[in-house]
Specification:
The protein is an alpha+beta fold. The chain is built from 6 helices and 5 strands. The longest helix has 47 residues, at 130-176. The termini are far apart.
């Protein structure tokens, strides 16, 4: 008979798994409490959260949320990293912390209902951020318009240069007389 606390934990996990754009499963064995707090702090700006839950409860919650692919990753101590806002930034934060700590390891994850390997999580971490992609798209959209404006303004500029040169020529001729 499940206890009230376990049922509540499964409900919370199910909700988090359903809301998350990406879930990364990590092995936190050997990580100190202070390091875990640093890790949590690194995830906060990207809208990510890390939670430690029992594997059995996580399997039940994943089943309730309709997620497949997590069962194979839930072996040994597992910490779940939820990306609620920006999966790329969260993956970068996890990848950076893995490099710095040398203790935390990435087992894999689930993104948009698909299982992803640890190598896939690393590849996602190398993608540009959403803001960078938006800036590149804006640049691509504005660039043709700016070039067209430059071409259309060319004859008017040439006329101004011609009139300016003519005025200078007249001033030189008047000064010479």
């Amino acid at each position: 008979m499940p206890t009230r606390q376990k049922v509540q934990a499964v409900n919370v996990l199910s909700d988090q798994l359903a809301r998350a754009q990406m879930v990364i499963v990590t092995d936190y064995r050997g990580l100190k409490v202070a390091d875990m707090q640093t890790f949590r702090g690194n995830l906060r700006p990207s809208g990510g959260e890390v939670h430690i839950a029992k594997n059995t409860l996580t399997r039940i919650a994943a089943s309730n949320a309709g997620l497949t692919g997590l069962d194979a990753l839930l072996e040994g101590p597992s910490a779940l990293v939820f990306a609620f806002e920006d999966p790329v930034q969260t993956a970068k934060a996890v990848s950076d912390f893995v490099r710095v700590s040398r203790i935390l390891t990435i087992k894999g994850g689930v993104m948009e209902g698909r299982a992803v390997s640890a190598a896939d999580v690393e590849a996602i971490a190398t993608l540009p951020s959403r803001e960078e992609l938006q800036a590149k798209l804006l640049g691509m959209l504005v660039s043709p318009m700016a070039r067209t404006l430059g071409v259309l303004g060319g004859p008017a500029r040439s006329m101004v240069y011609l009139l300016n040169a003519r005025a200078e020529q007249s001033e030189l001729a008047q000064a010479a007389d």
